[in-house]
């Protein structure tokens, strides 16, 4: 079994644009990559973003708004093993 590369989509509040891209990348590249999204702040997922994506057949209603430092350890350990977070 091969390990999928990680893709981290970064945004400011992880509420709209980063969530849209996270949804599309997950839909289009689910077999090739593991997709995550985060921001430097969390504003909650914008209900309008959820509605727009539903119109395109992509469900992001289960997404959460996350801080980038929630992923820092995992990405740092994998790509920069000598750096201690």
UniProtKB/TrEMBL annotation:
SUPFAM superfamilies per the UniProt record, alphabetical: Phosphotyrosine protein phosphatases I (SSF52788)
InterPro entries: Ptyr_pPase (IPR023485), Ptyr_pPase_sf (IPR036196)
Keywords: Arsenical resistance
Taxonomic placement: Bacteria, Pseudomonadati, Bacteroidota, Cytophagia, Cytophagales
Stored PANTHER family: ARSENATE REDUCTASE
Organism: Hymenobacter chitinivorans DSM 11115
Entry annotated with the keyword Iron: no
Key word 4Fe-4S present: no
Full protein name: Low molecular weight phosphotyrosine protein phosphatase
